[in-house]
Fold:
Amino acid sequence: MTKWKLGLLALLVCALTAVVVDAALGGGSDGGNSTVTRVIKVVHPAQLPARQEPVTRVPTKSATPKQMPPATKTPPRKSLPLEGKTISVDPGHNGGNFTHPEAIARPVPAGANGTTKPCNTTGTETDDGSLTEAQFNWDVAQDLVPRLKELGARVVLTRHSNQGVGPCVDERAGIANRAHASVDLAIHADGNLAEGAHGFDVIHPSAAESVAPGMVAPSLQLAEAERNALVEAGVPPADYVGEDGLDERSDLAGLNLAKEPAVLVELGNMREPEEAAKLEDPAYRRKLADALAAGIVVFLSRN
Ligand SMILES: [Zn+2]
Structure:
């Protein structure tokens, strides 16, 4: 390609892309004798700013609460099985009762018909004396109370250490009654000398001495729930007292004076060496406590 042809091509490209010469428009004030040059800038569509869409206004009055997105709320906490319930836990006897025989021998009201009983007793102990019943009852309560609280219950205890004396049996019932307890559970262990006698029994009140006869039937239901829970946990029912792990009695002040469903559990026989060894095992005590809590949950889920 010759030099002059290249020059001509460059001139042509320049004219097409940048400038259009619009000559001799005519009609101007100078009578069409002048030449006006109009410059048109060529812009590619991609360089255009985005089109502004017209704003659609939603009238605020039409936004009724039903159309509003639901407010973000914390999901309600799942209620615990014993929420709203008060459980009275009565660890039988007390570690200091041995030292105050006269105080604990004082007669106190024990039933609906004017009967009396000693304020408290010392309880039994293992044959080798390594574990007193008062200590065992206290230890089980120490496992049971946190378990009940974990399940949502409010717990009242009839004593707060294993070093004190009493309280008397009528006062123990009074503590549960004043707390408007849903359940009154007394924890004990037995001291039976019969060869090989072992197992638990759940004692429930009889109408004969109860100050609240309407509580006799629910107390039996509570006893059955506790019996079933203990059996399910592998704890054997007593082979020397009661029937199928249940025992109705009218001579226990705590049960007679209770104005709520009440039972007294004898969790084993401390005078039987094999069972005593189990009762001394912390893991076994925890198993007993868990079973007692489970029985309470079953009973209160039906009542
Ligand atoms: Zn006892």
Q: What stands out?
A: The two ends are 109 Å apart (CA to CA). The first strand starts at residue 86 and ends at 91. The chain has one domain: 86-302.
